[in-house]
Amino acid sequence: MFTKMKNIDTAFKYVRGFTMLVIICCAVICCYTLSRSFQTVSRMQDKIYILAAGKALEAYASDRKDNVPVEARDHIKTFHQFFFTLDPDDKVIKTNVTKALYLADESAKRIYDDLKENGFYSGIISGNISQTIQIDSVTVDTRDYPYRFKCFSRQNIIRTTSILKRSLITEGSLRNVSRSDNNPHGFLIERFNTIENRDLTVENRK
């Protein structure tokens, strides 16, 4: 009888041990499932979908610091394209310059005022001149704040009889500001300065 009781006690211990093992395994599986679920939800929250031309485009959210060099270069390119792209139309000039001045401080405004006072924009209109800009490269030093930049570009000044090509090199710094519709990158150009603006070639138009 004692042997029978001992066998029952041993069997009970085995069953209890097996049950505890099953419970522990279930708990581990549940914790793993919850962890993976939270990770999946977190990744999904970093995605947004943009509807463009009837198509859903997937986009990813990321920290600002991951995109500072890319956004900074695009901000500088956008400013130069607005500020230096001109056509013989007063409304076009004002529209482009206004957009550019949202991206820079008074250093760019002073350049605009000086050009306007010297009759530069009037000459563009009266001479039926168009001016375009091609950005070759933009370097941004993000190691120190505010970020220093240098922009290398070429201008095409299209006159009735000729096309003048000029080299344009500018520099300045960037500081962070609030994002807005007028300034989507959240940067402001400061201490904007022209280092070089010289003639390269002149082509006669046929």
UniProtKB/TrEMBL annotation:
NCBIfam families linked: Bac_Flav_CT_K
Residues annotated as transmembrane: 14-34
This one is known as Conjugative transposon protein TraK
> InterPro entries under this entry?
Conjug_transposon_TraK
Q: Report keywords, A-Z.
A: Membrane, Transmembrane, Transmembrane helix
